[in-house]
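As a representative case, we now present a protein record of this kind.
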Amino acid sequence: MPQKVVFLTGAASGIGLETAKAILKSGDILWATDRDAAGLEDVAKLGARTATIDVTSEEDLRSCVNTAIAKDGRIDAVIANAGYANMGPFELVSMEDAQRQFDVNVFGAARTINAVLPHMRERGSGVIIATSSILAHVSYPMMSWYCASKHALEAMMDALRAELYETGIDVVKINPGAIRTKFASTAAAEFDRAILRTNDPDYQERLKYVSKSLEKQMGTGDLPETIANVMVKAIHADKPKVRYMPNKQARQLLAMKRILPARRLDKIFAAAR
């Protein structure tokens, strides 16, 4: 495969870390970025060029992208992977926390893409990839703002793909389902904090149910390497798919959404008893 120059955010852990390893293994040049400097040490040892940046900072992203282009001459693929999940009942999530969720998951992706897009348009080629989620299509209780952010990301990427039609730039969405990463333990801790924030016994019971259900799903999910390999495939494809839904669990959830009545699906996801 021809060598690519790839710019990746959220590279210090989970799907991002495994994607970084897979990209390096394929022989590509990788700019691995994250706000966690210590977490980037592993990929730096494997040969990645690393930078500590925060996707909520437009200045950070533009400076790093300009450095990458100055050093390597181009960026062939950008992967907007940085993100996190806010947990808890809708009415207990502050607007400040909800805005932070969008600032990272949606506007962070937008800042990342916009930092690279003028360069790709000038060259007339490139691949733009965003890590979305099956929860962009199947909303899960107690995760309203995370699901909303992924819905928004999907809409943004669809519009961008149409805007860039016949420019030589491909726009790709990756929709993982349950993946065995630290997401489960992080989610459990978030749910525990949400339980402490409410004295409502019904909310407490439902939070415990949803937390346990999510942890079980994550524990039986695919390895993050599954997603990493799809990322590499999309980077090197002559004409990548507009969407990759790599794991079986994601496809099953989407099938349930299409087949079952909405209230039946609500009952399956939300029943606490």
Observations:
- The two ends are 53 Å apart (CA to CA).
